[in-house]
Design brief:
Distance between the termini of chain B: 35 Å
Number of helices of chain A: 18
Largest sheet of chain B: 2 strands, antiparallel
Shape of chain B: globular
Order of helices and strands of chain A: HEHEHEHHEEEHHHHHHEHEEHHEHHHH
Number of strands of chain B: 2
Oligomer: heterodimer
Shape of chain A: globular
Radius of gyration of chain A: 24 Å
Helix content of chain A: 40-55%
Distance between the termini of chain A: 58 Å
Strand order of the largest sheet of chain B: 1-2
Strand content of chain B: under 5%
Largest interface: A-B, 46 and 36 residues
Number of helices of chain B: 13
């Protein structure tokens, strides 16, 4: 086919379109370094509720040259996305939040993050809980990839209205006295289910995780060896006992059914790290005043808590660090605590009246400031191995299959050993 | 000049198709762990050897083929029947044909999320219908067979209309007088379908079989979202419905073992090629073709 002149025009246009398409595929976002005097755009990626909405406006007002972009997503997805962007070498946010469940695998890639010690972060070392500072420090101790935001000291949230209907005490201290140990807790649960014909806890996995968090050694010891016989076995046995007693509503944590369970009152208690307060409030706003907070059986423990990091590929690392530094200052941390309930990881703040005297109206005016700071101070943190995340999912799956009736309780532990072993070698 | 005109496609294909394929092959022959950058280097066929004895891969293969059979076979047969019905003179022909295509243009995630409501354990529509018929409620996530059925249902819903339209367009090209002649010889509608229609649209049938094979063996979104914890990619608490695509995702992004994940995806590629060839030959035989 011979082409006329117009054919050439079309062909050239097609090639041009192709080239433009390719150019358009280059990732946008924070790749462009900002020109001096121009506006700086800082992207923060996180999950859940970090209480940043109002702080964003505050910081932008104080720093007119900065524009903050909040990127909130799903917990696992955000961590995986960060991992992908770190490999790709571009597209990562200027500030990435990382949870303690993932921090070990990211701190072993310390070369992909800005070393905050170079930016002068060492002056904050003494302000933090010692273990919190260490958690985000690289193995050789030379690179600090992040600064801690909150800790997940554990308490037990319970529904006063449901307790009352089942003839159980509703007073905070009396409820705490019901369950000094987990066995007592299971007894209370049987009492509750017998009287109310309802389930007591949301899911076996949400018993397993806090009980495991209370053990001196979790899935892995400091040498990264899988240790199933100690903590995990104890937590697993107690969990199966509770499941066997028919206490579990079998609602998978963080699923839509689970969220609906808050609204419908499908369960009466929930192991509660400080950050869970925000989740309950956002999920079931109508249950305001029906919740209260008691002590968790078996002493202190930790579940979750996060860090803010600056990936090396950020073109505005200096500005990003300035914002990060501002976010971890006491005023902002207290602000976040009041707004969302996330407990700061700087112990000096626990004595601050803003936290020490804070009562949460949503939780029947429980003195959550005192309750949660006590849990954080009495904490001997656990070492979370590199493979902690996948191992936990593997064991949770076994618990879920017992609840679904596909695995016999008698075979469950052998199954858990096998799956955990597989996950540790994966 | 013709080369210039087709260049855009091939340039794009080289960058987004060919290069990733080759790069993936290279990664498959190396050790690459994100959680341990120090472990790096040439692995040869070690990743592929590991595949042969990997229980999880065997389980995923079994699930993938199980769901594939449950979805593709009924899907194509039903599509054929639907096309056969739509090929008659109907009132509101266009409306019927357009509505057949609606499931196909619905975003997959949206339709899957609706199906999750249908297949809920405690408050699902499917279990409510079963209870009306007098059957006990089923926990759709608690076993291989029921979870496969749930996933196959979602896949079928999406693709029956699409395949039916392809068949329909092929059927429109068959001359009417063949049917008239066979009717004079006393052929029933059923016989006409299998002895005239299917052989005459065989190329399109083969095309849909190959396409369904490629799509079916790469099933990812539906099994991923059926999980009560979509982020775990484990396909049920015991891997009841974990497909190969899910396993590749899990090995790569959960276990951070990119070398092994790449080896798995190459294995999947080879499996798809073999199965697609076998299916083509089988379809050809069944349809009585001589190609």
């Amino acid at each position: 086919m011979r082409l006329h002149r117009s054919g050439w025009v079309v062909a050239t246009a097609l090639v041009a379109v192709g080239a433009l398409t390719l150019a358009g595929c280059k990732g946008g976002g924070s790749d462009e370094p900002s020109k001096p005097g121009g506006a700086v755009e800082l992207k923060i990626a996180f999950w859940g509720d970090f209480g940043l909405d109002e702080l964003k406006a505050k910081y932008e007002a104080a720093n007119p040259n900065v524009k903050i972009v909040l990127n909130s997503g799903e917990y696992n997805a955000q961590h995986e996305d960060l991992q992908k962007k770190l490999i790709a070498g571009s597209g990562a946010p200027d500030i990435a939040a990382i949870d303690e469940g993932f921090i070990v695998s990211f701190r072993s890639q310390a070369d992909k993050f800005v070393n905050l010690l170079d930016k002068g972060a060492s002056k904050y070392q003494d302000k933090y809980l010692g273990w919190k500072w260490k958690q985000s420090l690289s193995a050789d101790g030379k690179t600090q990839i992040g600064l801690g935001t909150d800790v997940g000291g554990l308490a037990m949230c319970y529904r006063t209205d449901l307790f009352k209907a089942a003839g159980l005490p509703v007073e905070r201290d009396k409820v705490s006295a019901l369950w000094p140990t987990w066995d007592d807790f299971i007894k209370t649960g049987q009492d509750y289910t017998a009287k109310s014909k309802k389930k007591f806890v949301d899911n076996g996995t949400n018993l397993f995780n806090p009980i495991l968090g209370q053990q001196p050694v979790g899935f892995y010891d400091e040498s990264e060896t899988l240790k199933m016989d100690g903590g995990p076995k104890a937590a697993f046995d107690l969990t199966l006992k509770a499941v066997g007693a028919g206490l579990s509503a079998n609602l998978p944590a963080f699923s839509p059914e689970w969220n609906a369970g808050f609204v419908k009152g499908d369960f009466a208690v929930l192991a509660c790290p400080a950050w869970m307060q925000g989740h309950i409030k956002n999920t079931a706003p109508d249950t305001a005043g029906k919740w209260d907070v008691a002590a968790i059986p078996g002493g202190g423990g930790n579940w979750g808590g996060s860090f803010l990091t600056v990936p090396k590929q950020s073109k505005n690392a200096d500005e990003a660090y300035k914002l990060l530094e501002w976010l971890i200052q006491p005023e902002q941390q207290i602000e976040i605590f009041k707004k969302v309930g996330n407990l700061p990881s700087q112990p000096a703040l626990y004595k601050d009246p803003a936290i020490a005297d804070f009562k949460n109206p949503f939780f029947s005016n429980a003195p959550v400031g005192q309750i949660f700071s006590k849990t954080a101070e009495g904490l001997t943190p656990q070492y979370l191995g590199k493979k902690n995340g996948p191992t936990r999912v593997a064991v949770e799956n076994v618990i879920n299959s017992v609840q679904a009736g596909t695995t016999k309780p008698a075979d469950a532990w052998a199954q858990a050993l096998k799956e955990a072993d597989k996950a540790s070698k994966a | 000049m013709p080369y210039v005109l087709i260049a855009p496609f091939f340039i794009l294909f080289a960058i987004f198709g060919l290069f990733p394929l080759i790069f993936n092959g290279v990664v498959a022959l190396r050790t690459w762990r994100l959680d341990d950058p120090a472990q790096d280097g040439w692995a040869g066929l070690a990743n592929f050897e590991r595949l042969l004895t990997d229980e999880d891969f065997g389980n995923a293969l079994y699930n993938t083929f199980g769901i594939f059979l449950l979805s593709t076979v009924p899907q194509l047969l039903l599509a054929l029947c639907v096309a056969f019905l739509l090929n008659r003179r109907l009132r509101g022909q266009t409306w019927f044909r357009v509505s057949m295509l609606l499931p196909y243009i619905t975003p997959l995630t949206a339709s899957t999320l609706v199906f999750l409501v249908v297949f809920g354990r405690d408050t699902g529509v499917a279990n409510w219908v079963l209870s009306v018929v007098g059957v006990d409620a089923i926990d759709w996530r608690a076993g291989k067979l029921q979870s496969w059925v749930a996933i196959a249902t979602m896949v079928n819903w999406k693709w029956i209309g699409y395949n039916a339209l392809l068949y329909l367009s092929a059927m429109q090209t068959i001359p009417r007088d063949i049917y008239e002649a066979s009717a004079l010889d006393g052929a029933t509608a059923w016989k006409q379908l299998w002895r005239i229609t299917v052989p005459m649209i065989l190329p399109v049938v083969i095309f849909t079989v190959v396409l369904s094979t490629i799509g079916g063996l790469q099933l990812f979104t539906e099994p991923m979202l059926l999980d009560s914890n979509p982020a775990s990619a484990s396909g049920g608490s015991n891997g009841e419905w974990q497909t190969i695509a899910q396993l590749i995702y899990k090995v790569g992004w959960k276990n951070l073992n990119l070398g092994y994940a790449a080896a798995m995806s190459w294995a999947l590629f080879l499996i798809i090629v073999v199965v697609a060839v076998v299916n083509t030959v089988l379809t050809n035989r069944l349809g009585g073709g001589k190609r």
